[in-house]
Amino acid sequence: MNILSDQQYIQYSRTMLLSDIGETGQLAIMNSSVVIIGMGGLGHLVAHYLAAAGVQHMLLIDHDVIELSNLPRQLLFTAADIGQTKVAVTKRVLNRAYPEININTIAEKVTAQHFYQLIKRKVTKPLVFDCTDNFKTRQFINQLCVEHKLTLVSGAISGYQGQLFCIDFSDSGSNLHPNSGCYRCLYPLDMTITQNCTRAGVLGPAAGIIASMQALVGIQHLSNTFTQYGILHCFNAKNLHWQHAHMSQDPDCAVCHQQSVTQLSEQPNDAY
């Protein structure tokens, strides 16, 4: 797509009024593709924001089904959807609201093969959103993004503590911020992380804040207006306080420094 229709021009006019985005940025957003892994409290809202922003191609990956306990924070779902897969319901709801969006779904645990097939058939590399709630899965997604030189937008929320960061592992991105490291640098494999939403609980609006920030980061990246690569943003929902820190590469990291991803990716395909 290299031109907006009259209807699209009206629909996205408020975005294009931003001087650093304009029509060129909106077209970049619409010509992009994204992968969102995890359709829970973060992922379903990220998908909604991106669809509303005009992203034309989405792949949603999640094997989970909707439960009653999801409803206070997973706002696309209703009691009538309980027992259905989250990706199927998300696609149905978003396609109804945004029929021009091409949404594909995989109702399985994410595997390396999904990424291989995705990269093989896409001319433009997709932007990856990690919206999962599992330490092992996050490590696995990080490996795949490093291996395939993709940009990763990672978000997490547990209790009152949320975080997000964006690292561009592409050739151009690595040249701009070569010392940012990766998720493995931030959280080594031997680190014990026991808390997640299931164990620590979470308030719906707190999850919504992290999700909206992930979507904001993604839209800015797609429109070439983002500048905060390699910075960890931490949010305390208890006191509404944000902190940030520059991420740094672990010189012993087996993923982004020693480039031994090929061996690491040979773990079981049901990592998520």
Question: Can you offer a commentary on this structure?
Answer:
- The protein has helices at 6-11, 13-16, 22-30, 43-53, 86-97, 112-121, 135-148, 171-176, 183-186, 197-200, 204-222, 261-264, and strands at residues 33-37, 57-61, 102-106, 127-130, 151-158, 161-168, 231-236, 241-246.
- With 272 residues, it is an alpha/beta fold.
- Strands 3-2-1-4-5-6-7-8 form an eight-stranded mixed beta sheet, sandwiched between helices.
- β5 (151-158) and β6 (161-168) form a beta hairpin.
Please, what is the average pLDDT? Answer: 90
Number of strands: 8
Q: Strand order, biggest sheet?
A: 3-2-1-4-5-6-7-8
List the helices and strands in order: HHHEHEHEHEHEEHHHHEEH
**Unreliable stretches:** 260-272
Assess the beta-strand content as a share of residues.
15-25%
Specify the helix fraction band.
25-40%
- Radius of gyration over C-alpha positions, nearest whole angstrom: 18 Å
Shape: globular
> Helical segment tally?
12
Task: For the record, give the distance between the C-alpha atoms at the N and C termini, rounded to a whole number.
Answer: 34 Å
Task: Kindly name the structural category.
Answer: alpha/beta
Q: How can the largest sheet be summarized?
A: 8 strands, mixed
Task: Offer a few descriptive terms.
17% strand; disordered C terminus; alpha/beta; 12 helices; eight-stranded mixed β-sheet
Topology:
Layout: H1 6-11, H2 13-16, H3 22-30, E1 33-37, H4 43-53, E2 57-61, H5 86-97, E3 102-106, H6 112-121, E4 127-130, H7 135-148, E5 151-158, E6 161-168, H8 171-176, H9 183-186, H10 197-200, H11 204-222, E7 231-236, E8 241-246, H12 261-264
Parallel strand pairs: 1-2, 1-4, 2-3, 4-5
Antiparallel strand pairs: 5-6, 6-7, 7-8
Helix pairs in contact: 4-11
